[in-house]
Amino acid sequence: MNTDYSEWADYVKQNLEGVDLSFEEALHLFDLPLPAVGRIADEIRKRRCGELVTFVIDRNINYTNRCVSKCKFCAFYAKSKKESYVLSIEEILRKVEETVEVGGTQILIQGGLNPEIGIEWFEDLFSVIKRKFPGVLLHSLSPPEIYFIARKEGMSIRETLERLRDAGLDSLPGGGAEILSDRVRKVISPDKISSDTWIEVMETAHEGGMETTATMMFGHIERNEDIIEHLFRIRDLQNRTKGFTAFIPWTFQPKNTELYEIIKEPVSVTRYLQVLAISRIILHSVRNTQASWLTQDFEVDKMALFFGANDFGGTILEEHVVTAAGKAYKPAKVEDIIKAVKSVGRPVAQRNPEYEILRL
Questions:
Q1: Which pLDDT score is estimated for 2?
Q2: Which of 51, 141, 246, 261 is the most exposed place for a label (fewest CB within 10 A)?
Q3: 3-state secondary structure the chain
Q4: Strand arrangement, sheet containing 58-62
């Protein structure tokens, strides 16, 4: 196969010089052959991040499955009050302790939009975690949760974030972004926050000195244009604030969701790699791009390291949201991540949530 790489140098040059692509230039990336778009992304990754691949030891604790949003892409929320739960603080502490005992440094606490839980519950939880486990970083509560808490308490987003940060919250995950196109959101998550509000929460966090990650869930009803709109919104905010530490695109898992009637299977590996690579090419000001073994697998993650990703993600010692949609899952072992990365000839290191190297 003769692959035309004549355009790749310009894309690399613009990325390294921090030049924003136009919408047409970005959309054109979808027309390039997969090897070409992969080569562009890989060259950018080499220049920006070098060869080192990182990972974090972490755990996702889903504190409640009651959610008033009831998004059509979600299989996690309780369908009735009988099925709903709220974890006790004691149970969460036990999970954090288990994570710390195996060298974990990141705890992601996320759940549904539960009207029975107020800000004081989170303040009590975060403060006791920090008191007992001061070395743990709390990468917790997505923008929809922050906004929901703020509205429930009659507070501004800024005040809500300040109180939670004082209690021990370190950074925000990028959950709830899905696709930052209101055309899409009106279909898949009509009762969740708008694209503008997601951006507002993140911008407020960044202005207050709190770092966050950004995500994108694709492979449902979005078009290429919607993906570009999403990436541009992340890029434009990052240009203003420099508050995103990483970007994590992951694929929708349809089983057990309302969307299963029209979408039977996750998107292909080639589509995942294409979108991953395009994300790296467009997001010139976000240094780290994370692969998603949770929604793919280790073999795909190894390929992702040559399509723009420089981070293997976390060990994810616990997870219930993606698995509720029927995705098979077991926690990743540190030795398995190290073996996978080294098998493709790349060095590997454990990091913390702030992307500081802990152990080579």
A1: 47
A2: 261
A3: CCCCCCCHHHHHHHHHCCCCCCHHHHHHHHHCCHHHHHHHHHHHHHHHHCCCEEEECEEEEECECCCCCCCCCCCCCCCCHHHCCECCHHHHHHHHHHHHHCCCCEEEEECCCCCCCCHHHHHHHHHHHHHHCCCCEEECCCHHHHHHHHHHHCCCHHHHHHHHHHHCCCEECCCCCCCCCHHHHHHHCCCCCCHHHHHHHHHHHHHCCCCEEEEEEECCCCCHHHHHHHHHHHHHHHHHHCCEEEEEEEECCCCCCHHHHCCCCCCCHHHHHHHHHHHHHHCCCCCEEECCCCCCCHHHHHHHCCCCCCEEEECCCCCCHHHHCCCCCCCCCHHHHHHHHHCCCCCEEEECCCCCEEEC
A4: 58-62, 106-110, 137-138
Rounded to an integer, what distance in angstroms lies between the CA atom of residue 193 and that of residue 173?
15
Strand partners, 173: none
Q: Which long-range contacts (CB under 8 A, 24 or more apart) does 14-20 make?
A: 14/284, 15/44, 15/48, 15/281, 15/284, 16/44, 16/47, 16/48, 16/284, 18/284, 18/285, 19/284, 20/235, 20/239, 20/284
Distance CA 316, CA 341 (A): 17
Structure tokens at 59: 């755990």
Backbone phi and psi for residue 85, each to the nearest 5 degrees, phi listed first: -145, 160
Ramachandran angles phi, psi of 115, nearest 5°? -70, -10
Residues in the chain: 360
Residue 250 is predicted with a pLDDT of: 93
* Residue ranges, the chain, pLDDT below 50: 1-2
Number of other CB atoms surrounding residue 127 within 10 Å = 14
Q: Where are the domains of the chain?
A: 8-353
> What are 248's strand-pairing partners?
215
| Spatial contact of 233 and 199, defined as CB atoms under 8 Å apart | yes
Let me know if domain 8-353 sits in CATH 3.20.20.70. Answer: yes
